[in-house]
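Protein in question reproduced for absentees:

***
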Amino acid sequence: MKQIGFIGLGIMGRAMAFNAVRSGFEVTVYNRSRDKTIPFADQGIPVADTIQDLVADCEAIIVMVTGPEALSDVVHALTRTQLGNKVIINCSTVSLAATLAAGEAIVRAGGTCLDAPVSGSKIPAETAKLVFLVGGDDKTLQRCHPLLSSMGSTILHCGPLGDGTRMKLAVNLMLANTIHALSETLVFAEKIGLQRQAVANAINSGVMASPLLKIKIDAMLNRDFSPHFPLNLVFKDLNLILDEAEKNGAVLPATAAVRESFNSAMAHGLGREDIGAILQAIEQQSGLKPRS
């Protein structure tokens, strides 16, 4: 398997596609907004005019789009012709229903499908250290293993199709709650008279220390909210999580409150900033002056 297509060239898809190129795969790209294909065209990487053109040229196609509606549109275009045993790897974070519907449509069109959302944001994507959470047939996964390894450091087979999506929603539940709790901690500490750097040192020195917290604390203290995992996508995932929780009878009171906090941050224009920008919303609600 050498001829690979990429659909969706945002923060994640762009980095993943370039890593596949560096690993020797023959890559063709497609993006609805043509401007995102320019860096690829500038390096002589083929840009497909349509999704159908991409299908014709590739053995496997990675889809990395923003949500269920976008995935549905892509799958509709992919399945307008017989896929001829091509592998479609959906790396998007979407609803379980959208994942299963996409898989069924792909199989009906003669293809095979993996759902393989990733754990990791901009820097892991750029450095090929993503964690792939894969649902689907083990034989198909083994066929795609070299490709996924060109973009990630860990490939976890979570179970049948749909289990990759289930796992990603579970992981992102904890991620959103963790960053929200960190933001509340920093605001609380300042309101009771502690220095934020001292709080950071205490967190990073204790049992709660983790690579994620260190990265996010450093970014927050430096007021760096450039998007690695944009806040609006976190909000989208929280909605997916709570919808799935309601369907399955899981009561998630803290997550529901965090979703509303992210909703408030969206209303204050923070949606395109990093997840860590939730700190700014909590600061504002707590009466802390904006910082440069």
Remarks:
- Residues 3-161 form a domain with the Rossmann fold fold (CATH 3.40.50.720).
- The CA atoms of residues 115 and 157 lie 10 Å apart.
